[in-house]
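HUMAN: Quick job: go over this next protein and say how the chain folds.
***
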Amino acid sequence: MDNANENAVNNINENSNEKDRERIIELIDILNDASYNYYQKGSEIMSNFEYDKLYDELESLEKKTKIVMSNSPTINVGYEVVSELPKEKHESPMLSLDKTKEVEKLKSFLLDKKGVISWKLDGLTVVLTYKGGELVKAVTRGNGEIGEVITQNAKTFKNVPLKIKYEGELIIRGEAIIKYSDFYKLNDEIADEEAKYKNPRNLCSGSVRQLNSEITAKRNVNFYAFALIKADNVDFNNSIVKQYDWLKSQGFDVVEHFLTDASSIEEKVAYFEESISTNDLPSDGLVLVFDDIKYGISLGRTAKFPRNGIAFKWQDETKRTKLTDIEWNTSRTGLINPVAIFEPVELEGTICTRASLHNVSICENLMIGIGDEVEVYKANMIIPQISENYTRSGFKTLPSECPSCGMKTKLKNDNGFKFLYCVNENCPAKQIKRFTNFVSRNAMDIQGLSEETLEKFIDLGYIHEFGDIYKLNRFEDDMVNQKGFGKKSYDNIIESIDNSRKCDGYRVLAGLGIPGVGLTNARMIIRGLNCTLPELVKKSSLELGKIDGIGEVIADSIVEYFSDEKNLNEFNNLIDELEVIYEKVNETSSISGKTFVITGSLNTYENRDELKNFIDSMGGKVTGSVSKKTDYLINNDNTSNSSKNKKAKELNIPIITEEEFREMVES
């Protein structure tokens, strides 16, 4: 076959593979959406016949292409909980790229060579390793030399293929990211402004490095490949672009990229710049590498940077404006944050009037004062910041009183930076956040009591402590006559409050706002002590510290909270308004005190949560990973070569099926 015919055949195969991959992703989205609507919302958007037909098509395409994505309904990715992430040294150091903000430097970098320009995604770099067509290892970049092993977490990334056609050893680098759309959706579900995530990168970093992979799965982490490190016996025609095409044929998403040269680089940079406002993937610039792989390798590296690529950072658009005020806002922690208010300027297409000054030290370093001429910009073209103060009249506006309660402020030094705090425990700003937490979905779940409504009711004197929420009907006449309120709003809120009166003990405990005691720990504490809330109040740090998973710090925090007479009175008044129920634990059952790990698919239980809750109710305990403390591993396939099965066999831990588990319980 001549070269022309061979290239034509290759192009046909590549196009066919790409179409199959696109159809696989489309089918996964359709089927997962149908399942979500059916099981979570109780609505049917397609018939069983249609679902089965599409499922069979997906299964057939997966067999044909040997691509199986992590979120495919044809597989079930198990979750894992670990006590810590193992560390691993990279085979070769992962160096950062040299940077520039000048397009001319990109031209001089390329000279007469062709390059590949792509997004520089802003997430967490991860290295994936495949062997025998299966994902076997995932490691974070870490410090460039040593990363953390996150294999089970990577298996829950939304678009990572667990199985691929290529059976040799494949090592690739890519960026784990959370899309803006998913980031905003997650933040919209968090009522407490202070608890909202600051940006997609921080959320992604925390999600990827979770000890519980189930949490990672819920965060919709995506992976975009940007470098192929190893794939033996594959001819890429010495081209990075060909590597990208091949990775796509294996089922990977790769960074958006273009082949370019010195004459077209300016046009390509302009394209990316125009795309920033509509790009759903967080980025902080561009990356340019030589398409010629051998040439790039031949250039070697400096002590700090590889010479085969360069990063391009956006030239920040800056504007001069006049500072008109410094606003101070008290958070629920008591931290008082300075915010610069300035005359309106347009930056990156939007009008800006405010920028955070972060802390007192930054204010002092900028020598910032009212009336100063300042330069503002958007960091990464998103977050307004002050870069320079041309007048530097001096920082003189440190408030001596909290803007929320009027009590004296306190200046604290933390790691060399100065922060201003309100130390008044009864500061309304702190109180509002306490009540916001109390009524939130993860506590008492009282609908209709938004932060704005709570603030209004506190200001009007309706609410002084938690129990007052259950006495709001005393103010019916006043409430229905409030601006923006009415009889219907009143009725809805009172109904929601009354619905919350009968509640689980652990939700009440989580709602109190004790440091370190969220919903999960609250449930663990109530179950661990098997006692009522009034009995919990009398427990010592020693007793609380014996609960598995509750350390000395949280135990001391609980004792300290209830040692405060004001807190104790508030708690007692609240309990008088509630009908608290407690999960019954059967301590006399045959599995009481036993520790189980669940893996694989289930037959008689709807899901693992149902089985876990049953074990909990019978006095048993479920953990995420097999250890010497495990009594039984529940797995209907005890012949599988899963890591949990292997570990159980190594430790001589019995592997039992669901049926054997049920027989054990009934015996």
About this structure: The first strand starts at residue 68 and ends at 69. Residues 228 and 343 are 49 Å apart (CA to CA). Confidence is low (pLDDT under 50) at residues 1-12.
